[in-house]
């Protein structure tokens, strides 16, 4: 241990209390031993340090900070150097605002386009997500602040997120859902990691020994701290036994009492307790020293705004630019432009939930367009944000469109469509926005669609637009960045980090996600995103890695070696521009089922017109490996592989075979029992094949006849108690009213999806687990027994907390 001298001076009561938070955002200080507290803050794309009392979902305002584009946007840049720059700025602002640990970046896999939190996540591909996350982490930690990548792991839906069991086979877990975290730890050097809310194969992430001990600590040699997501602890003793170091936010002192009891009765060893304390001490003391070394109460807000614009610029994706007879973009100088759409006046520049940032400034298309060399004839909102019909707004927009050479139509997903705490119900853009688009196209065919959304959408309307530019969620400087691209001041260079399918029913997991009842079954296995579409040969709207430019590039002279590949890229157009070159590997597909090809390398390069560059992409330990479930090891399948170089997953421009010596001595699968997986036809996998994939039977995920402490509040619908069902109806009514207004009530959503145990973890010690169990009793129809438990538990818990506080404060 690193801090034996301090640990030997701590009482066991202090040790136990030290492993839980003391407030919404702070760890517990032990003043007797000069052990300080550390401050945590949300911050995947900007610092959300709250003024006054903290609350998890942001009811209280946060101090101004730069709102950078979210991860889903910046990942479209495919630029690790840019990610590191953004990370440095985030770390600098965190240090200036007194934040020690930044809760981000988020790198869960975009398994389904409907996950409500996809705007916070990088990609459907773990290699791309991991590389970008590692870059952010390096940048953040260079300023003395710890990054805390999240949510570890297999967290793919918001619905009942604290009460779901992710049922997944080991190969899919390793190759898809853990690879990004592995890169973040090994290459980014992450010093903290946040565990997710869900169970993984029946064991909660925060107490999952396979995940936290065998993989994270032993295989990856992670030496930082493990922090729970806010309210994610289920059994604190089991978590500490798995070397999870800090339960957040402030669960009170009941978890500390549980640790003491476990040590006394042999359920937890003193060595296990001390190991967790030692990890946390190392972090606390290191961060205290870092605070002194990076002491500053200010940051350059203007410079960071400029960086936010740079990040948005590199991430804008040109999806369409018809050449009939000439492309609309870039806009011709002094052309008459009609700026239409509510998003032009009130932009969608970030998602909703715990990541919401109070920006230092905010650009809008309406306010910025006057600075550009076009003749803007006016700006009309055209539609109401909440979807209510308004013919007057629509007619005014159509009249304006009739007078213009080009219509810039700003539209996309509204705030209600993308939020922490709820998943999307479909992939469509709100109906009224599309109705207006149709009317505008009838009035003026020269439509440039300016799209804002943090995740993939269906585009049956795309023919109404001659050009489509996707800004994703552009952060506080997104409007100026978009106008730079539209006017040709900057050549677009963003490439999609996710596939855009034709319709939701085409997605690989649409029958499995979100999970029904308790289980979320990952039957699609490794066939996520482009891995599925490519293997199946399915038509898509826009493939993974796709994006257009105002110039053209050619590829030539591919050369392979045992360590990597080299080739030449040339800018053969008439403008300077950047290209994202992508390396995919196609395996032999003989004994091991696998996708058609997988991303294993990429690089973003800038070329002046007429310039050529020799590009090298090296192979690494992940290039040819797969996880063998029989030998429980990374192995290589021997045979011929194809190294594919292209501009996106479906535009391969160069390829060449390479022979790889295999290491497989024992084939992991019986091919005859897994036909769906070997064909890549995974949308309707039979139970027998999924069981063969898992290596065991499918666990029963059905809701039992009675509610338990790990069932969600929304399941009060099934309660035997009239009062409990009334509470459900009231919560549902409040939820629906907030949705009707177009803005989600985040606290209601959090409560709605929270299990009963969460009440004991999120009330700052006012409620303990015995009281939560009393609530379950009442909900199951045993009202008076439940009330006795709640009332008796309240007074006993209050007395025990008071006595414990005396122990650790004296």
Give the structural class: alpha/beta
What is the typical, i.e. mean, pLDDT? Answer: 94
**Domain count:** 4
Which architecture of the largest domain does the CATH hierarchy give at level 2?
Answer: Alpha-Beta Barrel
- The assembly state of the depicted protein chains is single chain
Task: Summarize the structure in words.
The strands form 8 sheets. The chain has a 6-stranded mixed β-sheet with strand order 9-14-13-12-10-11. The protein has a 4-stranded mixed β-sheet with strand order 7-6-4-16, with no helix packed on it. It folds into 4 domains: 290 residues, TIM Barrel, CATH 3.20.20; 212 residues, Glycoside hydrolase family 3 C-terminal domain (Rossmann fold); 153 residues, Sandwich (Immunoglobulin-like); 97 residues, no CATH class. α4 packs parallel to α5 and α24 runs antiparallel to α25. A hairpin with a 2-residue loop joins β25 and β26. The longest helix has 27 residues. The mean pLDDT is 94. The chain is an alpha/beta fold and 810 residues long. The chain contains 25 helices and 26 strands.
Task: List key phrases describing it.
alpha/beta; 17% strand; 4 domains; 810 residues; 25 helices; Rossmann fold; Immunoglobulin-like; globular; TIM Barrel; 4-stranded mixed sheet
């Amino acid at each position: 241990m690193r801090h034996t001298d301090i640990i030997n001076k701590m009482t066991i009561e202090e040790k136990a209390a030290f492993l839980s938070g003391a407030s919404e955002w702070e760890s517990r200080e032990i003043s007797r031993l000069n052990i300080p507290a550390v401050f945590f803050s949300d911050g995947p794309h900007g610092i959300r340090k709250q003024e006054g009392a903290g609350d998890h979902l942001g009811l209280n305002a946060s101090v101004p900070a730069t709102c950078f584009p979210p991860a889903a946007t910046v990942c479209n840049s495919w630029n690790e150097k840019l990610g590191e720059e953004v990370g440095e700025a985030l770390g600098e602002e965190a240090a200036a605002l007194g934040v020690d640990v930044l809760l981000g970046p988020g790198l869960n896999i975009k398994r389904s386009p409907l996950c409500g939190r996809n705007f916070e996540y990088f990609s459907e591909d773990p290699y791309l997500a991991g590389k970008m996350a590692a870059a952010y982490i390096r940048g953040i930690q260079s300023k003395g602040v710890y990054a805390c990548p999240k949510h570890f792991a297999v967290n793919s839906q918001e619905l009942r997120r604290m009460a779901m069991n992710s049922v997944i086979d080991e190969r899919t877990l390793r190759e898809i859902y853990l690879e990004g975290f592995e890169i973040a730890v090994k290459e980014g050097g992450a010093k903290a990691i946040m565990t997710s809310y869900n169970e993984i194969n029946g064991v909660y992430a925060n107490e999952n020994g396979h995940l936290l001990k065998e993989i994270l600590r032993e295989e990856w040699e992670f030496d930082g701290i493990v922090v729970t997501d806010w309210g994610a602890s289920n059994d604190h003793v089991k978590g500490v036994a798995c070397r999870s170091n800090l339960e957040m936010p402030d669960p009170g002192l009941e978890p500390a009492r549980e640790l003491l009891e476990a040590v006394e009765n042999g359920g937890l060893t003193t060595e296990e307790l001390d190991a967790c304390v030692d990890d946390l001490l190392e972090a606390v003391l290191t961060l205290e020293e870092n605070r002194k070394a990076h002491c500053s109460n200010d940051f350059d807000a203007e410079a960071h705004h400029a960086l936010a614009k740079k990040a948005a610029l590199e991430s804008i994706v040109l999806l369409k630019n018809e050449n009939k007879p000439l492309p609309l973009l870039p806009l011709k100088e002094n052309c008459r432009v009609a700026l239409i759409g509510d998003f032009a006046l009130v932009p969608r520049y970030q998602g909703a939930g715990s990541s919401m940032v109070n920006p230092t400034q905010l650009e809008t298309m309406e306010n910025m367009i006057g600075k550009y060399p076009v003749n803007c004839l006016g700006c009309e909102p055209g539609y109401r944000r909440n979807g209510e019909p308004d013919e007057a707004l629509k007619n005014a927009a159509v009249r304006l469109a009739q007078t213009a050479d080009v219509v810039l139509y700003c539209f996309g997903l509204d705030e209600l469509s993308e939020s922490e705490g709820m998943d999307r119900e479909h992939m469509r853009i709100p109906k009224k926005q599309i109705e207006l688009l149709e009317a505008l196209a009838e009035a003026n065919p020269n439509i440039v669609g300016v799209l804002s959304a943090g995740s993939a959408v269906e585009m049956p309307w795309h023919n109404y637009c001659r050009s489509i530019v996707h800004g994703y969620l552009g952060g506080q400087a997104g409007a100026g960045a978009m106008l730079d691209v539209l006017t040709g001041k900057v050549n677009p260079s963003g490439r999609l980090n996710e596939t855009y399918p034709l319709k939701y029913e085409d997605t690989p997991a649409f029958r499995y996600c979100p999970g029904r009842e308790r289980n979320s079954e990952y039957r699609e296995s490794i066939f996520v995103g482009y891995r599925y579409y490519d293997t199946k040969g399915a038509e898509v709207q826009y493939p993974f890695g796709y994006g257009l430019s105002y110039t053209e590039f050619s590829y030539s002279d591919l050369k392979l070696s045992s360590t990597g590949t080299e080739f030449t890229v040339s800018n053969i157009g008439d403008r300077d521009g950047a290209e994202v070159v992508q390396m995919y590997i196609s395996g032999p597909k003989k004994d091991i089922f696998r996708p058609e090809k997988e991303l294993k390398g990429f690089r973003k390069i800038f070329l002046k017109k007429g310039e050529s560059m020799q590009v090298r992409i090296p192979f690494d330990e992940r290039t040819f490996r797969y996880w063998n479930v029989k030998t429980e090891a990374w192995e290589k399948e021997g045979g011929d592989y194809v190294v594919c170089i292209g501009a996106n997953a479906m535009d391969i421009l160069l390829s060449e075979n390479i022979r790889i010596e295999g290491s497989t001595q024992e084939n992991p699968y019986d091919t005859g029992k897994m036909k769906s997986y070997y064909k890549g036809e995974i949308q309707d996998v039979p139970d027998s094949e999924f069981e063969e994939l898992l290596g065991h039977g499918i666990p029963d995920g059905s809701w039992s006849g009675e509610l338990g402490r790990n069932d969600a509040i929304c399941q009060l619908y099934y309660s035997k108690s009239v009062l409990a069902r009334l509470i459900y109806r009231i919560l549902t009514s409040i939820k629906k009213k907030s949705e009707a207004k177009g803005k989600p009530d985040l606290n209601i959503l959090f409560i709605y999806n929270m299990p009963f145990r969460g009440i004991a973890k999120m009330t700052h010690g006012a409620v303990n687990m015995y009281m939560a169990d009393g609530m379950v009793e009442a909900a199951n129809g045993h009202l008076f027994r439940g009330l006795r438990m709640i009332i008796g538990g309240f007074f006993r818990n209050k007395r025990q907390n008071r006595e414990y506080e005396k122990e650790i404060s004296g």
